[in-house]
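Re: weekly structure request thread

Next one in the queue (256 aa):
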Amino acid sequence: MSRALKVLAAPLIARIEDVGRMVLMFLGALAWLFRPPFRTMNFVHALHFVGVGSLFIVLLTGTFTGAVLALQAQHAFHMFNAESMVGGTVALSLARELGPVLTALMVTARVGSAMATELGTMRVTEQIDALEALAVNPVQYLVTPRLLATTVMMPLLNAAFVFVGMIGAWVVSTVILNGDPGFFMNKVITWSEAADLINGMVKALVFGTIVATVSCYRGFHAGGGARGVGLATTQAVVTSSILIFVGDYFLTLAMY
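Done, posted below.
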């Protein structure tokens, strides 16, 4: 009976150990932020890769997200002769939920997968072992710049997402569907507050930390050649996406 229980509990214990190692890597990367040598160029390159490299897909997604929200809201509120509520509804939806969540998912798909693949390839080709042989801490050299860059850039990408989303919503509501632009902007100003955008930025910051930590961890501990790298990348994207939705629920519960 004891042996059967151990067999059944083994997957759960392995997951708990996995989470523990991930947390330790995050804490180690965090500690290296305040210890020299500071890898400034690594950080700048990571900023460019995460921020500039993801800008187009985030802007494109944000524009059409705002547009489809306005389209759906316009048709729904038309049944109650309340088309003036479209602007406020879209603004709150983008700032509070859709902005940070969809931005994080786009960054996960593009940046998280790339991080896991790159570090996984370095692991299976023994480049990480070579760094250790040269007395270079691989967490400080590889993980810390990526973690900091993703955490910094995610709120900025979220702000860009919300901004273009509102432009897309305004175009659909006022230009395509002939809504009143005055009513649209009035409800945006009346219903939304700075706290809504700030809370969304906080969510994005947390999601950025999650994406970078999970992706770097999966890549850092990849093994088994090319198949292992592919598996690590898949696990990074799936785990990050799940944690984004779970974290969004608890953050929303705490903020609102």
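The helical segments are 2-31, 40-78, 86-124, 127-133, 138-176, 181-191, 194-220, 225-255. The radius of gyration is 22 Å.
Next request, please.
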